[in-house]
Specification:
single chain; alpha+beta; Dipeptide-binding Protein, domain 3; 2 domains; globular; disordered N terminus
Length: 532
């Protein structure tokens, strides 16, 4: 199976965000001491301090914090860098570098009060200048969409920063609190090029060695700003580009964890007695889907009744999910998985019925079917072949054309070069905590997809209801209506299937109450080992 590069974890939770100047009581809580006791379901063992934890990574690692472009690999810096707060499995934000924060919905702001007495690994004190520098870098170097494109980042005093947007959103906390905070002086003293391969954070581990495409190593800091009583002495990311070598290393006890969505690997792991955990997996839900491209008015796919015939009744999506994923995938008509907060069983309306599909095509003026193109990129050949076979049964003859990965990136960022009107299977990690953010960037009338299809007034109105919602409950109701229209009525977006990966651990490695979220990574204080 394929893995998208972003580390997006599925958290099923409703975020509580005040609409008008109120303050969540949890946001003023002090950072709790390092946890003790045992992980739920783990052996009754006191946490231990020490040991060496080796974790695999699969991406070519050449740089870390890079303000010049999107898609850097800073997610591997979680032992060293710390966010303002961590969104944990209880659905609440837990303060980290932020002591407190206040959301003003009417003023379109979030005001963050930093914790005092925190120092970076270079000895400098964390203050408002560092947070302003961190957020302003997003604006200055073209990654402002990651924090909702704020209109201003303002220093209020030495430890307080206010971020302002032009419009109300329910996602102010989600945009800002997950952000790692970088040392302004480290960049100013060493330059932007230096920071590409060096980390200066506030976390419990210091970056000690980096050899590109070999390993990245962190060593416990002797001057961390809070006392800790558990956790390994070193955390090392070891490069394993291939699934087979990564699996062998885990089975041989060389690495502490492995996450996978490959059915063959899962079978071997479970045969060896390991039990998978989905909650803390770094690639939890991958959503495979089909997008209808560039709807030329003369193309049969421009006819909504044709699209409805193909999606609702012309393809056996349950079989596609089973066969393409090696038994790990399942289809539903929701964009994303059933874990999405807006999911409802009422969305499930597609049902394989090739005879009905052929009749709908005939009623639309295509009794003999038509010809189209399936555009794919390497890795989705099996998916395309399965769809192609079902389309053939209802008279739709399709050719499969492989496109370069760069074309996919151009597509996802709003530009298409080298593809015409047709059907485009692809995949995307879809984090339930960032569900609205995903729609804004990709699958809405203002996202990248707006360049590839035609939105009618009803679709735009449904999306505007999502954007103007004042509570998460209201937003979820609007999202449900938008998805139902987009997928089941307009049928320009076809969910194929979701694959839920699993993480496996060595017996002596324990994760507890982790805080998995995009960009903020894991809480290293929640990883511990049985040290003999």
């Amino acid at each position: 199976m394929k893995k998208i590069s972003a580390l997006l974890l599925a958290l099923c939770m409703a975020l509580s965000l005040a609409a008008c100047g109120s303050k969540d009581p949890d946001t003023t809580a002090s950072l709790p001491p390092a946890p003790s006791g045992t992980e739920s379901g783990a052996p009754s063992t006191a946490r231990a301090l020490g040991g060496d934890l080796v974790l695999p990574f699969t991406s070519t690692m050449g740089e870390f914090f890079n303000p010049y472009k999107q898609g850097n690999l800073i997610e591997y810096g979680w032992p060293c860098y710390e966010p303002l707060a961590q969104l944990k499995p209880d659905g609440q934000w837990h303060p980290c570098l932020a002591e407190s924060w206040e959301v003003d919905g009417e003023g379109h702001t979030i005001t963050v009060k930093l914790r005092q007495g925190v120092t970076f690994h270079n000895g400098d004190t964390l203050d408002a200048d560092d947070l302003v520098f961190t957020l302003q870098s997003r604006l200055d170097y073209g990654t402002a969409s990651a924090i909702g494109n704020p209109s201003a980042v303002e220093k209020v005093d030495d430890y307080t920063v206010r971020v302002r947007w032009d419009a109300f959103s329910l996602d102010y906390e989600l945009w800002i609190l997950k952000e790692y905070v970088y040392s302004k002086s480290a960049v100013e003293d060493n330059g932007l090029d230096w920071i590409l391969n060096n980390m200066v954070g506030t976390g419990p581990y210091v970056m000690s060695e980096f050899i590109p495409d070999v390993h990245l190593r962190f060593t416990r800091s002797d001057s961390y700003w809070r006392e800790i009583e558990s956790g390994p002495d070193t955390i090392t990311f070891q490069y394993f580009p291939e699934e087979t070598t990564r699996l062998a290393a885990f089975l041989n006890g060389e690495i502490g964890t492995i996450d996978t969505i490959q059915s063959t690997s899962i079978a071997q792991l479970e045969a060896a007695g390991f039990v998978g955990n989905s909650e803390y997996n770094t690639n939890n839900i991958t959503h495979y889907y089909v997008q209808i491209l560039n709807l030329d008015e003369n193309d049969p796919l421009a006819d909504v009744e044709v699209r409805r015939a193909l999606y609702l009744h012309g393809i056996d999506w349950d079989y596609v999910a089973e066969a393409a994923s090696g038994g790990l995938g399942h289809h539903n008509d929701c964009i994303g998985s059933e874990r999405m907060a807006y999911y409802s069983p009422e969305l499930e309306q597609s049902a394989y019925d090739p005879e009905k599909a052929k009749q709908m095509l005939a009623d639309a003026g295509y009794p003999d079917g038509f010809e189209t193109v399936l555009y794919i990129y390497p890795g989705l050949e099996k998916d395309a072949t399965l769809i192609q076979a079902d389309l053939e049964k209802i008279g739709v003859r399709s050719t499969v054309e492989v496109v370069d990965a760069s074309v996919v990136w151009n597509y996802m960022t709003g530009y298409v070069d080298g593809v015409e009107s047709g059907i485009f299977p692809q995949y995307l990690s879809y984090d339930s905590s960032f569900q609205t953010d995903r729609f804004i960037k990709f699958n809405s009338p203002e996202g990248a997809v707006a360049e590839h299809t035609v939105w009618d007034d009803e679709g735009v109105a449904l999306w505007n209801a999502v954007k103007t919602a004042k509570t998460h409950e209201e937003q979820n109701d609007a999202l449900r209506a938008f998805v139902e229209y987009y997928v089941l009525t307009d049928c320009t977006y076809w969910p194929m299937y979701n694959v839920e990966g699993k993480m496996y651990y060595q017996e002596d490695v324990h994760y507890s109450d982790m805080a998995p979220i995009v960009g903020a990574g894991y809480d290293p204080l929640e990883i511990w080992m049985d040290v003999k």
